Amino acid sequence: MAALKISKKHHKHLNNPFPSTPSSLPLLRGSLFFNPQTVPSDQTFIVGKDFQVLWSTDNGGSLSISHQSHPSRPIWSTVPGQAFVSAALAETEVEESRGSFAIKDGNVHLLCNDQTVEDIRLINENDCYLEANELDFLSGNQGLDQKPYLKDTQFPILLLTGWVFRKKKKSFQNTEIHERLQLEAERSTYARYWVLFDQKTSNQIGFQVKFGKPNFEFRSRAFATASRRFRGLKRKLRRTGRSRLGWCWSFSRPRGFVKVSSSEEEKEEKVAESIGFNRVCLTYSSEENERFYGFGEQFSHLNFKGKRIPIFVQEQGIGRGDQPITFAVNLVSYRAAGDSSTTYAPSPHYLTSKMRSLYLEGYDYSVFDLTRKDRVQIQIHGDSVQGRILHGNSPSELIERFTETIGRLPELPEWIISGAVVGMQGGTDSVRQVCEKLQAHNTPVSAFWLQDWVGHRETLIGSQLWWNWEVDTARYWGWQNLIKDLSAQHIKVMTYCNPCLAPTNEKPNRRRDLFEEAKKLDILVKDKNGDTYMVPNTAFDVGMLDLTHPDTASWFKQILQEMVDGGVRGWMADFGEGLPVDASLYSGEDPIAAHNRYPELWAQMNREFVEEWKSAHSGKAREDPEEALVFFMRAGFRNSPKWGMLFWEGDQMVSWQANDGIKSAVVGLLSSGISGYAFNHSDIGGYCAVNLPVFKYRRSEELLLRWMEVNAFTVVFRTHEQGNKPSCNSQFYSNHKTLAHFARFAKVYKAWKFYRVQLVKEAAQKGLPVCRHLFLHYPNDEHVHKLSYQQFLVGTEILVVPVLDRGKKDVKAYFPVGESCSWQHIWTGKLFAKPGSEVWVEAPIGHPAIFVKEGSIIGETFLKNLREFNIL
């Protein structure tokens, strides 16, 4: 039985331009039964000090969890009479192509989708280890890994035990998997499970689900007859209004089942039994009008009700459903266009309009199925699941409580949020020339970000970087003098690196060959044969750092040290989403789970270097904010805010389209903030361009100018010269109009620096994002839940309604219900005092629709600064 199949599609260049959605398990449904002899009738259990779990026998049995401060408001509950845990053994197929991954469910060999509850009990601290001695399900391979999990736990904890099983013959066509699942008429499968709830903090309750090994039985005819009689009794009880349903099972084995002798079918079952389950499902209730937000950085949607969300780090794709670019990209590169769910930085976390929030721990691939109106099902590719359920009275509270556990970004150095970060390429002469032009326009500039500091080479797809992290002294002659001259103007130099290394045999002026050095040190990821894994990436293959190797971090930190010793004060820490799922790592861990952890390890190594560099300096050098280091990255997972410093949204198309362009950049900005990515921004103007004879995607001047207007209200105002074909795309330095507009909005950005500093401090303390969906502060306004990219808040005091469509010169602004204040239009001073109103507002280029709260100190100071910069 092959549980995992991996298909490499890196070099497949003629493909179906309309690939199907990766097949997956359908939403699993099963019945819930309980044993009335061992399970109490309606009862409330106090878990820890602050949570209560209610077991109710109404309508077939259910659980609900609430905080003791609001006992009547459940924060999590199961569907009455429906199984809330289930398990399966299924084949997995992963298709991989240059950082894009499609994970598919194949044949299902085992399925246990019905559930019994045999026991519900509280365990106190004094008797916890007594239970472990008496029962095997609190320790060892068959049950909970008790000691690590119960660290910092507040007693008592609640333990549920019972069985999952396949109750009767089933035969159904799974059109999503395109395989017929034939579950045999007489044969049955069952396994024991354990569910544990324990208080983690005053506002978080943890949960863990584990399963024992599957067992295979034949049902006796007597049991089949009893089963039919039970169903008749069940219907009779329903007619008489009684809802307590009993199903008698023993702790050793469900009654009515007998062991069978060996057979050919038994051989396969023994293999399955040795493997165990590799799918776990957790099912619970949801309300029809409940909206779901979060799931990390998502680009196509903000409300995910009705959708399936796979949680797997990968390239976001080029097009993501927008046409015709999606058609063309998929045709020439397998699934490279991505889809509405592909993202660099997903997170198994959400919060809802009903003030419910949950996140998973661990790094297994998971899918959140929100396609049913009345329930949620989380499917985990693993044999257990662990996570936390959060209590909070507002979206802001829930974000604060989520980030206090997973980690928060530190305060940014003030220099990077003081002016524009100018993305340039071309070498020393080009940088000096552009710097003079910016000075002529009195442009506030914080830094020059020089991505091509390592040198350029020509490949099949255009001009690309040499992935060898040292300065190219031919392209950037006088590197030290350039850094010194810019520093004299209070302008920093930032560079670029990533966790991959390219062979540099053909590079003429290299000083070090980092690929060969890493290969000799044996710190590159290996393939299954133990050789260096050469990972295809765009037009060349690279070696990838094994971040689980104990020698990798110290070696790479020396590279960063050399870069910083030369005067560099920041860098883009690119990539991190492409670890092959068949890689062999030093740690020996499962590469699929390690794949989701890899970007966190990449962030951790960079962050450790920043902190070590700070600690190594003393006196003025250590305290001087002008000397502080910063890095920014695109790939991430749940805990990335703990290790990162600043994020950017990766490579959007130079497009007005919804799934991959200026609109998706706003969606990604807002969704990521809900999951803890408090500091995020996009490339001004987008990045990915196409210049083919059949069709073209070029960065137009209008798109560039409108993107400047949006990003003047994000935490960092940074350009990115369109990379592979820069001459075909409008750049900020293209002409007087683009330069003047860039200077104007760098000043607008500078004008609210005082507020940005406040918001950065608040984010470091509470985890709240700088840019916010209106839902965070107006959760009871129904219209707010319909908004996605149309408008957003900066903190609480500035409302941004950007122009995101070609040729538009006005926008529809919505003023939310929930406060009595008026909103003041910054350009005209006009007040909009009616909450819940929509108004068309003129927004020609240079005058986007921006509003501040009337009478607020923040708003008045912002307007004052705009006047001082001669913007108003």
TrEMBL record:
Q: Which residues form the Glycoside hydrolase family 31 TIM barrel domain?
A: 427-726
What biological processes does GO assign it? Answer: carbohydrate metabolic process
Q: Which residue ranges have biased composition labelled Basic residues?
A: 1-14
Name a GO molecular-function annotation.
hydrolase activity, hydrolyzing O-glycosyl compounds
Which terms are listed as keywords in the entry? Glycosidase, Hydrolase
**Domain (Glycosyl hydrolase family 31 C-terminal): residue spans on this chain:** 767-858
Residue ranges, annotated region (Disordered): 1-20
Q: Which InterPro entries match?
A: Gal_mutarotase_sf_dom, GH, Glyco_hydro_31_C, Glyco_hydro_31_TIM, Glyco_hydro_b, Sulfoquinovosidase_GH31, YihQ_TIM-like
Family indicated by similarity: Belongs to the glycosyl hydrolase 31 family.
The molecule here is called: Sulfoquinovosidase
